[in-house]
Amino acid sequence: MQPINVIWLQGQGCTGDTVALISASEPSLVDVITGVLPEVSGINIAFHPTIMAPWGEAALAPLEDAKAGKLDPFVIVLEGAVPDESIAQKTGGYFCGIGDMHDKIVTLTEVLNDLKDKAAAMVAVGTCAAYGGIAAGKPNPTGAMGLATFLGKGYKSTLGLPVINVPGCPTPGDSTLKALAYLVLVVRGLAAVPALDEFARPKFLYGEKVHHTCPRAGYLAEGKFAHHYGEPYCMGLLGCKGPIAHCRVARYGFANGYGGCPSTGSPCIACTEPAFPEPPTSPFLQKSPIKSWVVEGVADNIGKVKATLHRLHKRRI
């Protein structure tokens, strides 16, 4: 199959998504790079500031090649937010540099503008890249924004795809690789474009709420709530944002099936949501909006009444 190049750019972020990527296990990064999975073989990480071997101007050569059309088809992955460089330019500076080429700093925004109309797909990994995240938190002095906002409303890649958002703080490595693997199949014409929700997140990764798949959900059904950290019950009273968060960690864990906020005794802070880290996802330990609990309570009671009445009818097996 035709090789596909991946250009991984880093903006305003903590590199947490890269750390999570390296810890992925289903599949692992090594499995993908070495072609263990035939359907997604032939993936070449042409540029990644953290894990690539070259340095200096040689490291930036793939970006020049992509601009010249030598790496087609390629997928751009962004980790971290995009700053508004016009703010920095007012004082003769810059916010986010990719590297140094010909004695000149190459900024993230320059690279994105050079490659946006040539990429087969654009993927925003992590909440900072998807929606601005921590970098865009008030007062947002750098004018940080998500990739889709930077590219503008209506942006489409060469395959006609919008920016695909894979948010998280950070995003589990398994989710990142599953999204990329799916897009590789799309690029090769082996799969249809994944269904996206209203915030351009793949539904197969973000279709469930934490609240619905939480390992503590049984305690919620019994009305048992934790009042102190360390107790095993539902953490709704301790600030859990599970009712408003779309995330697969509660069901699948963070890495190799382990970890995840509710599984390890921490309330969900809804880090996959566009508003993060602003309200209603914050303050992090403040209770989630009452509306979500009212809707949950009404639906729960209706369901239990229906289930109870259904017991009056014998079941035929």
Mind sketching the topology for me?
Elements: E1 4-10, H1 16-22, H2 29-34, E2 43-47, H3 57-67, E3 74-79, H4 85-89, E4 97-101, E5 104-107, H5 108-115, E6 121-125, H6 127-131, H7 147-151, E7 164-166, H8 173-187, H9 203-206, H10 210-213, H11 217-221, H12 249-252, H13 290-310
Parallel strand pairs: 1-2, 1-3, 3-6, 6-7
Antiparallel strand pairs: 4-5
Helix pairs in contact: 1-8
Could you explain the architecture of this structure?
The protein has 317 residues and is α/β, with parallel strands linked by helices. It is built from 13 helices and 7 strands. It has helices at 16-22, 29-34, 57-67, 85-89, 108-115, 127-131, 147-151, 173-187, 203-206, 210-213, 217-221, 249-252, 290-310; strands at 4-10, 43-47, 74-79, 97-101, 104-107, 121-125, 164-166. It has a 5-stranded parallel sheet with strand order 2-1-3-6-7, sandwiched between helices. A two-stranded antiparallel sheet has the order 4-5. α1 (16-22) crosses α8 (173-187). The longest helix has 21 residues, at 290-310. It is globular and about 75 Å long. The mean pLDDT is 91.
Q: How much helicity do the residues have?
A: 25-40%
DSSP summary, beta strand count:
7
Gross morphology is globular
The spatial strand order of the largest sheet comes to 2-1-3-6-7
Rg measurement, Å: 22 Å
Strand content: 5-15%
Which structural class do the helices and strands define?
A: alpha/beta
Distance between the termini: 50 Å
Biggest beta sheet attributes: 5 strands, parallel
Along the chain, the helix and strand elements come as: EHHEHEHEEHEHHEHHHHHH
Mean pLDDT: 91
Low-confidence stretches: none
Number of helices: 13
